[in-house]
Amino acid sequence: MAEIFMPINLKIEKIIVENAHLIDGSGMPAEFREFLAHVEVYKITVKNWEKADSKENVSYSNYPVGFNKLIEDSYGKLKKTQAKMIGMQ
């Protein structure tokens, strides 16, 4: 987790935070908020792994179930809009 998933999660977190102004709609989707919370909690969990006697090896904030679907659906919608704008549809 610390060497594989966490670097990926941190990149996703950065993309969401730095591009929040591009989110379509009136606010941050719940799945994005849940993902950001998941990453924040895992930052603490990963720090606890560095302690030799740590018994805290999992986070209480799971990866949001609908996060991947939201990304896929949003990407599909953007690609359709792009195709219309360049006259492909």
What attributes characterize this protein structure?
89 residues; elongated; 3 helices; mainly alpha
Q: Can you tell me about this structure?
A:
The chain has 89 residues and is mainly α. It has one domain (5-18, 27-85). The protein contains three helices and no strands. It has helices at 5-18, 30-49, 67-85. The longest helix is centred in the middle third of the chain and has 20 residues, at 30-49.
Secondary structure: elements and pairs:
Layout: H1 5-18, H2 30-49, H3 67-85
Helix pairs in contact: 1-2
Query: Distance between the terminal alpha carbons, to the nearest Å?
Result: 42 Å
Bin the helical content.
55-70%
Largest sheet: none
Unreliable spans are none
Strand content: under 5%
Structural class: mainly alpha
- Global outline: elongated
Radius of gyration: 17 Å
Count of DSSP H/I helices: 3
Order of helices and strands: HHH
The total beta strand count reads 0
In total, how many domains does the architecture comprise?
1
State mean pLDDT (0 to 100 scale).
89
